[in-house]
Amino acid sequence: MKSRWKAKNGYRDVLTIGLPLAASMASATITQVTDRVFLGKYSLEALGASLSASVTNFVLIAFFGGLASYVNVFIAQYVGAKRPDEVGTSLWQGIWFALFSSVMIAAFSLLGPVVFTASGHSPEIQVLEIPYFQILCLGSGFNVMAMTLSQFFTGRGITRPVLLVNIFGVFINIPLDYLMIFGPGPFPELGIRGAGIATIISWAVAAAMFALMIFTERNEALYKVRSNWRLQWKRFKALLYFGLPSGVEFFLDVFGFAVFIFLIGRLGNAELAATNMAFTLNQFSYMPMVGMHIATQIMMGQAIGGKKPDEGAEAAKSALHICLCWGCLMSTLFILFPGIFTEMFRPNGYTDAQFANVHEMGRILLLYVAGYTMLDAFSIIFIGALKGAGDTRFVMRLIGFSSMCVLVLPVYFVLEVFHLGLYSAWFLVDFYVFTLVTFSYLRYKKGAWRSMSVIRDA
């Protein structure tokens, strides 16, 4: 451990890049958890509706944001190839795509009534899902733009600005959530609509902060972030070619879980609320690992750009060890202290008897979460390494196959045909993660990624 701490792309180097990203993801998790805790205090119906509506919105963000965010691999490989003048050009191709994404996602808000009416959820849930989804869609362009602009920093391995922006977002979102959900004093009580408006405001502030930090005289001199603003079709096509599989992969992953949540919602409001609790608490273990996933992607991209794939492999190994330690800690907490976590979501005024059913289901679901948390560490890092090298089409096929054939279709048959219930469906979530681990590891071990690159004109 001592030698790996000091080694090139060892623990110290990975943590230098990854720790601020992990902390950024943790701050985003705190925002999500606080949002849903407030909604849980407001009503169990608001808690249940917030998950299905926000995940449906995130299906759209996943595709457009996943594609636009692949800018970070281009930036990382150009930095590794010692071509900083190409950074601004790459960033702007992502910005143009983010602007297009804003219009497209906003247009999808019109489909809210159709989607949620067809969901089969109870009427009291649907009446909350529709406006929350529509509000989030109208403001999602700010989120995609913030994600895109942040790649200017992460692609270069400079992650502290991303942390600062995310922390500032927490300080804005949490008080706004409280004020706009519950309406104390002169503020109107907007319930779940208030939660959506507060989220959009925090997204817009994040995008504005990134823009102020990027478009400076210094960055113009180093990276041409102002002068290279034009859409360059050759570079834009390259972003689409490599980023489209990344966007589709992210979309299919989130889509699988969106369908899962919709099907769970047909079981009843209590099952949907318990699932919301479990997935929300899962963010504490999952999102910091995503920070290490992005760090692996960046360091692999820089290594490939510099034609030093062995350095990328060392970064992946170091990041994997760190994720396994974190996963072990979180799994232990979920197993030993589930009641502390589920109690956070008890609605105001609910007695022990009223909350008992949801509490017990949430406790059992946390055991399923603990079961796949360690597996998440492997899949997150191996997939990050493959994407950093440019092997996005394999990742897209893997996620697509696993999402549809291991999660969506089996869950449909388990719940709708055989009526095996909540816990059988959750077992398939563990098996889904196991599938990702197996095939991403085999692909990574094969080593084809070592000869890949996204900057073909290098």
Automatic annotation (TrEMBL):
GO BP annotation list: monoatomic ion transport
Keyword set, alphabetical order: Antiport, Cell membrane, Ion transport, Membrane, Transmembrane, Transmembrane helix, Transport
InterPro entries xrefs: MATE_fam, MATE_MdtK, MdtK-like
GO cellular component, one term: plasma membrane
Subcellular localization, as worded in the UniProt entry: Cell membrane
Superkingdom of origin: Bacteria
Entry keyword Transport: yes
Topological type in the membrane: Multi-pass membrane protein
GO molecular function: antiporter activity; xenobiotic transmembrane transporter activity
TM spans (from-to): 52-75, 95-118, 130-150, 162-183, 195-217, 238-264, 284-306, 318-341, 361-386, 398-415, 421-442
Classification via PANTHER family: FMN_FAD EXPORTER YEEO-RELATED, MULTIDRUG RESISTANCE PROTEIN NORM-RELATED
Protein name: Multidrug-efflux transporter
Provenance organism: Desulfobaculum bizertense DSM 18034
